[in-house]
Records
---
Amino acid sequence: MIYDFIVVGHGLAGAILAYTLRKKGHQVMVIDEPKPNSASNVAAGLLNPLAGKRFAKSWMADEFIPFADAFYDELERRFQKPLFYHKPIYKIFSSIEEQNNWMAKSAGGGWGDYIQDTYTQSKGEPAVHDENGGIMIGRGGYLQVSEMLFLLAQELQELGLLLPERFEMTHLQLDKEGVRYKHLVAKHLVFCEGYQVIHNPYFKWLPLQPTKGEVLEVKADNFAPECIYNKAVYVVPVGEGRFKIGATYNWRQPDEQVSREGEQELTERFEQITSHTYSVLEHWAGIRPAVRDRRPLVGVHPEHAQLSIFNGMGSKGVMMAPYLADHYAAYLAGQAELLPGVNISRYLSLYYE
Ligand SMILES: Cc1cc2nc3c(=O)[nH]c(=O)nc-3n(C[C@H](O)[C@H](O)[C@H](O)COP(=O)(O)OP(=O)(O)OC[C@H]3O[C@@H](n4cnc5c(N)ncnc54)[C@H](O)[C@@H]3O)c2cc1C
């Protein structure tokens, strides 16, 4: 059996790419070493069209979001399970100055249904600190990432299309027809290893910046908001009085251990949003595959046409991966030009250095 693709890594990137390639009729084999604290497994799963301090619409949000909506919808129907929760995101103004900045920025209009409401004073939710008001952002929500990965992996396993083990470079052979890996033969291999690509001899020249993030799950009493809150951190209601609070950003010391500093930062910021009493239930740390220019890393190796990479989703994998997987599959089939903004060719000078 000659596979069309071997996909290495079954986090958000590899899982969505493998599913997309299979849907387009390709024969795909996935190799993944299960990792409970992978970026995907610890992610809060947020999709926010308007992230960042400068109130800018996320890059390509108009293209990515409808695609992501349809993609997660399809998986929900396939597995008969809710996976993506559409929820407005209440971005609380941290100061009057921030409110003024937004008022000036929004005066020109053009935000469509990304903005549901603007509050110039508190919305009035008890025990929530929003004295300067905020904006209610539409078209966002959160994905149960680990649940989705579990369902997709289970399906692959049932079909015999998942090798749950570490991919070892020493077993990889490249030849004119494609690649050989142990007993597997394929025309093409795509690496989706998340931050671990920094150890990959074929792609470690790319400027991936491993960025640690920590997340808490807390239980808060008598707090049942309809929206996700955001002021320095996100407070995501995940049901039964539980909330995910995240996340921290640390690129100076990207280890995978939870820390007291991380917990303190998250609880302090949570307390700046609400004075509801709470207890911490869980604490996770993972490493994001972030990139210097905050754009994904997608494309074929400059010298080995049978190897490529689909990575660098940074902190926006939930929003970007479905569209980019479809786009990359079309590119690999010769049906589209690769978006210059994601193409690894933008860093080619680093390869030849
Ligand atoms: C704390 C935190 C919060 C986040 N919150 C959000 C959020 O709210 N919204 C959002 O969109 N994004 C969020 N992110 C970012 C998001 O998690 C990433 O963009 C995304 O998960 C990256 O997916 P990935 O598949 O590239 O990498 P990973 O999730 O790291 O998956 C890589 C997979 O490849 C496997 N692998 C690697 N090397 C090998 C090998 N040699 N052999 C076999 N298997 C291998 C790993 O075991 C793993 O299963 C968050 C990240 C963190 C850390």
Note: The longest helix spans residues 61-79.
---
Amino acid sequence: MDAKFVAKEERDWRPAPAPETSSLATLKNAAKTCTACHLFRHATQTVFGEGAKGAKLMLLGEQPGDQEDLAGKPFVGPAGKILDRALEEAGIDRGEVYVTNTVKHFKWEPRGKRRIHKKPNSREIAACRPWLEAELRVVRPGLLVCLGATAAQAVFGPTFRVTRERGKVLKSEIAPKIVATVHPSSLLRQPDEESREREYKLFVADLRVAVKAL
Ligand code: SF4
């Protein structure tokens, strides 16, 4: 692809046109046709949040991955499976949680035949923010769990460090209580079984802090 074209395409964004509504279905439907940033061009579909209006707990990830992009559902890939296991261990029923992402389209780059995850940048996060704000307005969770740096920095700003602040009950204007922790995909990237297990336990401990704070 032409580098200049990509740069222009990426520079061209506006805030997503989230409608004023109290209906999650209306929001989800409107997001299907969102073209506020260039990410819709190379993804299969918008992956909107899932869960009940009025869920007490909202989980916020970074963006859909390869499998989520194909399925149109958040956290159904390998990271989602770890999340499901950890939620269960922390005593959280995924069916009662609202799960979403900071950015609703899969950003990727080709590597051979594979689509490799690419971190969304500040323009893409800003473009997508109205969808997240609308979800928060409608769901009104008592507690938001930020999964990973992209989600946490979208809430607290770019200087926020998950490694320093994880597992604490924090406050922000966008939700009464917030707990930041790692993204479950980081557990998949651990170099060996021992560190994977250690990080998994820390992840579950952070989720338990969220349950306790609810
Ligand atoms: S990533 Fe968000 S803002 Fe960009 S096109 Fe998709 S839904 Fe719209």
Note: The domain at 20-213 is CATH 3.40.470.10 (Uracil-DNA Glycosylase, subunit E).
---
Amino acid sequence: MSDPSPHPMAFTDLPPGFFALEDEPEFDPARHLQLEAPETVYRLGEFGYEGESLADAPVDFAATSVFRIMSEEGAAHLYRIAKSLEPFTTSNARVERNLRGGVYRSKYLRDLCLSPEVAEFMSGIAGIELMPHTIAHQLGHINFNPPEIGRNVDKWHVDTLRFDYVMFITDPRSNEGGQFQYFKGTRDEVDALKKAGKPLPPDRIISPAMPGAGYGIFQQGSHVVHRAKGLTRPGERITMVNGYIPCDPAFSDHAAYGQLVGVDPAEVVTIEYGKHAADHARRYIDRYLLQRDFADDREGVAEDLEKAASILQTAARYIRAGRQEIEHFGED
Ligand SMILES: [Fe+2]
């Protein structure tokens, strides 16, 4: 894997009201990661994606079975950090209690989420070169269970990011309920079922058994419909979601500014999204336009220039359009 480009957010200036945690352990990939290959990797074709709905995805990877990401020691550090960050949780229309932007507050969390070792490992699984998400609020998202028993942690949905892993920070074996689930079907299928008032067929819902803290699944979250169920008796359920994007800037952006601005502080997410778009266009120009040799390829050069411009124009249009309703497919 080529050297990762620096993240467009420097993380030296924290957003207003954000403070860095003190006395954190240092993230040590050799000790804190334990990357073990998943047994099963599902393809989007197996989920029913075909034609245009498949062409929309950068790769046909859908999701994995459960695999280990962090060591026991790493997961224990992350648990203590999650507990320190718990006072800063917020609510939105989909998730009752989540912590976003934790990568500004915790260097350990940031180093884990930006880890080139993890990005390379996930790239190998997905079959496409990936890099950590260039929107800081799409890194290290942490879900905490709602205090009310039975309330789902997160509703059926697809993600506002392309690729992500969902990892348990607490040990799911000590809980009743609280399963992470994904549906072996397409977004359109779920949409049609929900509009018809029908539940998802239970025999196509996968509820992978999680053997402990530090284990998770990896998915193309833009296409795999998933949710997190509520606990059925009192307990603690904490999970982390980390986002990735394709390294190749020719793939279109999937970040939904209108959704993010409904969830995250506008003064933070607008800057993050603007820099994310600028970084995308810059990487496109670097990788395509500036690599060109002498040739009379007027059409190619014109297309490259237009593509770079359209990355920026599309982002500007989304920023002007502003907030949109948060999308999800409901509870059951
Ligand atoms: Fe999700």
Note: The mean pLDDT is 94.
---
Amino acid sequence: MPANTALESETKTIANGPAPREAVLKMAPYHPPTGGRRNKLRLDFNENTVGAPPHVIDFIKRYLTAADLSIYPEYEHTLEELAAFFKVAPDELTLTNGTDEAIHILINTYVSEGDSVVLIEPAYAMYRFYSQLAGATISEVRYRHGNLAFPLSELLEQLDANTRAVLIGNPNNPTGTGTNVDGIRQILRAAPNAAVLIDEAYYEFSGVTVLPLIREFPNLFVSRTFSKTYGLAAMRCGCLFSQSANMAHVRKAQSPYSVNALAAMAVRIAVQDRTFVEEYVLEVLAAKELLYLGLERLKIPYIRTLANFVLFEAGERAIEIRDELRNRGVLVRDRSYEIPGAVRVTIGTRDQVQRFLSELEKIW
Ligand SMILES: Cc1ncc(COP(=O)(O)O)c(C=O)c1O
């Protein structure tokens, strides 16, 4: 073969690149939030709509040293203080790079290719994302038709001793619905060999938690995040809780410095003063009632929520309503691709809800 032909065929092979794993080939690409959100009223990603807690920003501005950023992160103090805050032992808690990493390391620790993972749909996209990435066999139970209630009996029917993981948002995103502590107990009993993750990203709004049950159920994992109520989504920090023996396995599947030093510092300061969070939750709960009234006045059907967002029914106009609102500076999320006609709006302050309602009224 002439030299240049050999080179050409070699380049061709390299240009094609290595073949990805089968599980990756099968996945649809995930599209993260679009850019250009800063100067709009951001009611599309369930973040805190008033910004990060001022006492956290003040602390970072005043006390951040050059060494804080030049040395690899040390988590000891953050772990101790968060453990005390959440009333668990430090070895019952793993600090994670957002809930996303909690889901990722849980799956990496417990789910092999072909293993059975049970999800309730529609739900937070990352449950499916990491399960698919692991090559799991996913069984799916649907939230109930119409009122999108938590399908407890249908879920219990799907669970058995072969289930390796069950991932549940309680309350769930995007439905805003959930189950109670007794419901979770039944799930834990029905899937004795599974890692059961109860994602409590919206706990501060729902007030329902199963965190104290980690002592009772060795198959229970609970996650919390600083991305929502705490106003620290950009920091990417969350916590995963379970019995210490489980945490020891999970930590082996985590890279050693996945939470950055600034995030570890910010969350430590965030839990020192609860006033910001308490006031924000009260404001959102008041704004929720205002939103319900406004939607009722416009005769728009909606689902009552346990979280800081509401799904409302825009029928055929879901995408158009989202786009029209965006043109008026208000961002909401179209969810009609998974629940026909559904649009999701984050509940912010009463003023923000008022602004959303007045823009919606103009285009409805
Ligand atoms: C149910 C649920 N879990 C987790 C997350 C993401 O949390 P984090 O920012 O901690 O990764 C979201 C974000 O929308 C969510 O709705």
Note: The first strand starts at residue 41 and ends at 42.
